[in-house]
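Lecture 7 notes: from sequence to structure.

We start with a single chain of 104 residues. Read the sequence below before looking at the structure.
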Amino acid sequence: MELAKLVFDAFDKLLDRSQNEVVEIDGEEDLTIVSDVKYSKTKKFNAVLDLYFDSKIKGKKPVMFYIHGGGFVAGGKEFRRAIAKWYAVQGYFVVNVNYGLSPD
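Now the structure, written as tokens:
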């Protein structure tokens, strides 16, 4: 499992800047982003999530839970900021979730 963790971590770190910092998404300036909302007080893992939504869109919005990949050994919501923003600009209420990873 260590090889899988190494591969997932390497991809996230190598592609983070190109996926999340260089990408400009039309309409992202209208988004509301609420970061690091705790969704569990009893768990010891990083039980936090980020919310992305366009507050100018009134009424109901479809909800999308974005759960990062990583084989339950690597990854995190911080590497999926751009895709969460893109879905929010499309009119979704996006919940970008961190979850507990398998222990080393």
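The CA atoms of residues 64 and 94 lie 5 Å apart. Keep this in mind for problem set 3.
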